């Protein structure tokens, strides 16, 4: 992950490419991934598998993801992806509220102003920046494993729904 002001020589890029090391150009502090570079001999086996599985078994994959993330105490068998996303949102809201109470932090909900982050309160600003950095790292991992971050299982909108 290369941030603002970083430069890289052609020899370094060639060497990284020969070992199939992904190079990504990111914004300040790893926030926002602007561009990604891969070797032209990149193996697309995992990308093909990802597409096939999403086309043939998307709902079961989504259920497995949610079960792994939230445990087996939720009955996911008859849930649609939208129902699972709603469940996820409710769980995260309760976690945010619980953590704010535990650490005595004022919490008035998640109200991110992505276009004007300076207007956010400190907690929402921190969550937005940390989530952005996390998505950049996750996207780098997804690319390096040969998957396509733009093709999501649960989420379908945004620039990299697989990371979400």
Summarize the structure in words.
By secondary structure, the chain is mostly helical. 49% of the residues lie in helices and 5% in strands. The protein is built from four helices and two strands. It has helices at 10-18, 45-70, 81-102, 122-144; strands at 23-26, 33-37. It has a two-stranded antiparallel ribbon. Strand 1 and strand 2 (33-37) form a beta hairpin. The chain is flat. The mean pLDDT is 85.
Topology:
Elements: H1 10-18, E1 23-26, E2 33-37, H2 45-70, H3 81-102, H4 122-144
Antiparallel strand pairs: 1-2
In short:
The chain has 164 residues and is mainly α.
Please give the radius of gyration in angstroms: 19 Å
Mean pLDDT: 85
Silhouette: flat
Oligomeric description of these chains: single chain
Query: Which range best describes the helical content: under 10%, 10-25%, 25-40%, 40-55%, 55-70% or over 70%?
Result: 40-55%
Low-confidence stretches: none
* Biggest sheet, spatial arrangement of strands: 1-2
Order of helices and strands: HEEHHH
Q: How far from one another are the termini? A: 19 Å
Structural class: mainly alpha
β-strand amount: 5-15%
By DSSP (H or I, 4+ residues per run), the number of helices equals: 4
Number of strands: 2
Largest sheet: 2 strands, antiparallel
């Amino acid at each position: 992950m290369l941030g603002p002001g970083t430069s890289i020589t052609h020899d370094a890029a060639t060497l990284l490419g020969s070992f199939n090391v992904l190079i990504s150009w990111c914004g300040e502090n790893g926030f926002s991934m602007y561009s990604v570079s891969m070797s032209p001999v990149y193996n697309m086996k995992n990308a093909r598998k990802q597409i096939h599985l999403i086309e043939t078994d998307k709902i079961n994959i989504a259920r497995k993801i949610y079960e792994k993330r939230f445990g087996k105490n939720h009955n996911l068998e008859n849930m649609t992806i939208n129902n699972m996303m709603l469940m996820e949102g409710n769980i995260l809201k309760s976690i945010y509220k619980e953590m704010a109470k535990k650490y005595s932090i004022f919490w008035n909900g998640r109200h991110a102003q992505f276009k004007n982050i300076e207007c956010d309160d400190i907690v929402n600003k921190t969550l937005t920046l940390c989530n952005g950095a996390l998505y950049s790292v996750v996207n780098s991992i997804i690319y390096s494993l040969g998957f396509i971050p733009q093709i999501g299982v649960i989420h379908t909108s945004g620039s990299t729904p697989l990371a979400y």
